[in-house]
Design goal:
The chain has 178 residues and is α+β, with helices and mostly antiparallel strands. The protein contains two helices and eight strands, in the order ααββββββββ. The strands form two sheets. The chain has a four-stranded antiparallel beta sheet, with no helix packed on it. It starts with a helix and ends in a 10-residue tail after the last strand.
């Protein structure tokens, strides 16, 4: 899209300095007509993207990724470990092939202590996320407890180092993926 805009701008600049006023007007009208055709072609795609955003609980990153589901709790692995389960969807009109890092930082609020950090890649040049498809990721803290009582734990969720959401870890046991 950026190349298209640059091309249009360059073409417009060349036209201004190399043509008469009437030639410019004719070529300008032709460009506008082509732009309207492009808008008509892209409109269904844009409508679908807007619908995806509306269904994403307001959590959209970079106009490309929406959070479809988000669960928190404790997973039992010899002790209870804070856990975040997240389902992310590619709502753009293209496959995502660049690195998209999802990071979760777990905080024990009662002690003002960071108790874990973990990250995974939603997409990369080697592992693309197809347009319109979702991917589930799970994140575990590195510290846990032998019993879940009054722990006050939150998780900060980042995508490419941008804080997307801070969420409380619910005091319930998660039994697996969503």
């Amino acid at each position: 899209m950026k190349k298209f805009i640059k091309s249009i701008s360059l073409l417009f600049f060349i036209i201004i300095f190399s043509c008469t006023h009437s030639d410019i007007e004719v070529k300008y009208k032709k460009l506008l007509a082509e732009n309207d055709s492009l808008k008509k072609i892209l409109e269904p795609i844009n409508q679908k993207q807007l619908a995806e955003k509306a269904n994403s609980k307001g959590l959209v990153f970079n106009e490309k990724i929406s959070i479809e589901e988000l669960q928190t709790g404790f997973q039992y692995e010899g002790m209870f470990i804070p856990c975040v389960l997240i389902k992310l969807k590619n709502i753009s009109n293209m496959d995502i092939q660049e690195y998209v890092k999802v990071q979760v930082i777990f905080i024990d609020n009662s002690k003002k202590e960071q108790i874990g950090e973990t990250h995974k890649y939603l997409a990369s040049p080697d592992e693309k996320l197809l347009q319109g498809y979702s991917k589930r990721l799970s994140f575990l803290s590195s510290i846990g407890w032998f019993a879940v009582q009054n722990q006050d734990v939150t998780a900060n969720i980042f995508i490419n180092d941008v804080l997307i959401k801070t969420i409380n870890i619910k005091r319930k046991q998660l039994s697996g993926l969503m």
